[in-house]
Design brief:
With 256 residues, the chain is an all-alpha fold. The chain has a domain of 151 residues: Orthogonal Bundle (Lysozyme), CATH 1.10.530.10. Helices cover 71% and strands 0% of the residues. The chain is built from nine helices and no strands. The chain is rod-shaped and about 165 Å long.
């Protein structure tokens, strides 16, 4: 009887010990699970933060790429503008030097001066050629449209119209003496609605008939060649060259 009691006690103790071990194990497992859950939650939060940061980085990278392409485009435009400005300055310099060094009569008339309207208006003021005020833009556009050097055009108009004061210029807007031949120059001269119309007509006439191979009056590409059929005065080309020098100096007083 006493032995059974001891066995019972031992069995009960073992059951309690086993229960304690099981409970300890379960508690450990629960704590481990909770720790793993916390770690997983932290990892998930870290992942979400990293993903958000990556998305932000991608957005910033796209924005930077867009800005880079924009800046490259601006640089390309600036480089093109720089080349254009350099070409304009070169054209102005070559035309100016040809004019002031009295080479205007032998330089190609179909060349680009790149003189602008402000330069011509400055020249007309400096030369007191008030009757030609407002024609600068037309000379520039005529050069762009017909390829005839605008300084040459301006010089011919200045010479032929007496700086815009001739009767033909006043009454008929004819700055170039166009059609003023034979025994009655005034009556035979062409009538234009404006000085602008006359400038464009003269540029077209010179470009097509005097300066283009196969043109009706073509003999070469310089003022000396144009003068053969354009004017009776054998010194016409030299006089136009003198006018070119005067206009160039007045247009660009600082020189080139």
């Amino acid at each position: 009887m006493r032995l059974n009691k001891q066995v019972f006690v031992i069995g009960a103790a073992l059951v309690i010990l086993l229960a304690s071990l099981v409970n300890y194990h379960l508690t450990s497992q629960q704590e481990m699970y909770e720790q793993l859950s916390d770690d997983l939650k932290n990892l998930d939060q870290a992942y979400n933060r990293t993903q958000a940061e990556l998305q932000q980085a991608h957005r910033e990278n796209r924005e930077l790429k867009t800005e880079l392409e924009k800046q490259r485009g601006l640089i390309s435009i600036i480089e093109e503008d720089k080349e254009k400005l350099e070409q304009i300055l070169l054209n102005q310099t070559q035309t100016y030097r040809n004019a002031v060094e009295m080479r205007g009569s032998v330089m190609p008339v179909k060349s680009i001066s790149s003189f602008n309207a402000r330069m011509y208006e400055r020249a007309w003021r400096g030369l007191n050629a008030w009757a030609l005020q407002g024609t600068g833009e037309s000379f520039v556009r005529a050069e762009e449209k017909h390829g005839v050097n605008s300084l040459v055009l301006a010089a011919i108009a200045y010479l032929e119209s007496g700086a815009g004061t001739s009767r033909l210029a006043r009454d008929k807007n004819n700055l170039f003496g166009l059609g003023a031949g034979s025994s009655n120059p005034y009556a035979n001269a062409r009538q234009f609605n404006s000085k602008e119309e006359c400038i464009y007509f003269a540029a077209s006439l010179l470009g097509n008939s005097y300066l283009s191979r196969g043109g009706r009056f073509y003999t070469g590409e310089t003022l000396q060649h144009v003068g053969v059929n354009y004017a009776a005065d054998p010194r016409w080309a030299t006089k136009v060259a003198n006018a070119m020098a005067k206009i160039a100096r007045a247009a660009i007083p600082e020189g080139r």
